[in-house]
Structure prediction request, 170 residues.
Amino acid sequence: MNPAEEILDVVDEHDEVVGQAPRAEVYARGLIHRCTFIQVRDAQDRVFVHRRTPGKLVYPSMYDMFVGGVVGAGESYDDAALREAEEELGVSGLPRPEPLFRFLYDSGGVAGKWWSAVYRVRCELPVDPQVEEVAWHAFLPEAEVVARLGEWAWVPDGLAAYGRLRAHRG
Prediction:
């Protein structure tokens, strides 16, 4: 299926479902929808970082320190987090990601607003990321991720989630 045709739940400022629409319409009209952000760490506690492919609908060719994506119509955040993590990493049998917190992200007109559910998971399986989603990837020590924050072009919603995650950890 073309990602633009995927049906999403449209939600309000309180994350209550108020309707459904194709992703392209949700983005074009700036409707509030739901997304998952999963921080993946390997056995050495390194963070999975990747560069998005040029064909992505939002933030093409930018770096991200999360895997994840939109929550489909009728899908729970938890189910979407596991599905997205396994799809993007190219693995099966991943432990269920641990939910941490949610926040409402405003893209400033790029694609509206979205409720963002942030998770973490440890992946000790060999990864084989989706070529449609991931142009480059590596597991990096967190100190290197922090060092690259000012150097690489990062997805803005991922930066917002990362800042909140760091504050959440204390």
